[in-house]
Write a structure and sequence with these properties.
- This protein has helices at 2-21, 34-48, 59-67, 81-88, 124-128, 143-154, 171-179, 226-237, 239-247; strands spanning 24-30, 51-57, 74-76, 98-103, 105-108, 134-137, 165-168, 186-189, 201-203, 213-219.
- It is α/β, with parallel strands linked by helices.
- It has a 5-stranded mixed sheet with strand order 2-1-3-10-4.
- Helix 2 (34-48) packs across helix 8.
- It starts with a helix and ends in a 14-residue tail after the last helix.
- The relative contact order is 0.20.
Length: 261
């Protein structure tokens, strides 16, 4: 009995120590991409026998944390500007920067609105005539906020450009403002509304926000798990990874998955 009990204790301790010995990969990801990156992380964990920690937030906030020494291994931004700045500051592994997805902006109006008699009429014309407060991500922190602000600027003197704007720190918080009913409509990522009825949202033509929402990944030079980070980066470029990204509502650039100079 004593021998059996001792063997059991040793087995438990061995499992405990092995779990502590697991390598850990810490990923910083733009809020709009938090759902697909968790799916990709689960896939990766099955292959690497490691653990993946995901921290999501606005691209601008995560960038500031990285510059100030936050211990992330990988940064998945919602734009190309912040990864480029990190490269220029020599904070990333050379050759690790590439575009993993291209995001799409939508106007989401779950309950119709005062200016739309039927939800099915949600389109560019109805958005231009919107006269209630709207939600968008903070353009100073979030690339989707930049795209939303440029879209509104394109509308010129339309009623929608004069209404109160409620800003979320990132695309996820903006989604919550609208989902909760606190704000009737606003701009979010198409990846956030894919499971909603198609009649509730209008896919904003990329030409209205001028620059594509090119989302880039970088591996941080300060990482203690550069090899592991590279393996995760490869998952995003794999056919299975691309399938997950596409299913989440993202498109791909012509130069997708190529290293950026």
């Amino acid at each position: 009995m004593v021998k059996w009990f001792s063997a059991l204790i040793l087995s438990v301790l061995a499992l405990s120590f092995s779990s502590y010995a697991k390598e850990k990969l810490h990923i910083a990801v733009a809020a709009n991409f938090s759902a697909p990156v968790k799916t990709l992380a689960q896939l990766f964990e099955l292959q690497c026998e490691c653990s993946v920690l995901v921290t999501s937030g606005s691209t601008g906030m995560l960038f500031a944390q990285i510059v100030n020494g936050a211990p992330y291994d990988i940064f998945l931004a919602a734009n190309s500007q912040h990864p480029l700045q990190l490269q220029q500051q020599q904070l990333i592994v050379e050759g690790s920067r590439f575009t993993y997805a291209v995001g799409q902006l939508v106007w989401w109006q779950p309950q119709g609105g005062a200016d739309v008699s039927e939800v099915s009429k949600v389109n560019e014309a109805s958005v231009r005539q919107w006269q209630q407060p709207l939600a968008l991500a903070n353009p100073k922190l979030a690339p989707y906020g930049v795209a939303a602000a440029k879209t509104l600027a394109h509308f010129g003197d339309s009623p929608v450009t004069k209404v109160k704007r409620i800003q979320g720190n990132n695309a996820a918080q903006t989604y919550q403002f609208i989902h909760s009913g606190n704000v009737a409509a606003g701009f979010v990522a198409v990846s956030q509304v894919l499971e909603r009825p198609r009649e509730e949202y209008w896919l904003v033509p990329p030409a209205l926000y001028v620059e594509p929402i090119e989302q880039q990944l970088v591996i941080l030079k300060a990482s203690n798990n550069i090899l592991l980070a590279q393996q995760f980066s490869d998952i995003l470029r794999s056919p299975q990874g691309e399938e997950i990204i596409r299913a989440a509502g993202y498109t791909f650039a012509a130069s997708q998955n190529q290293q950026v100079p």
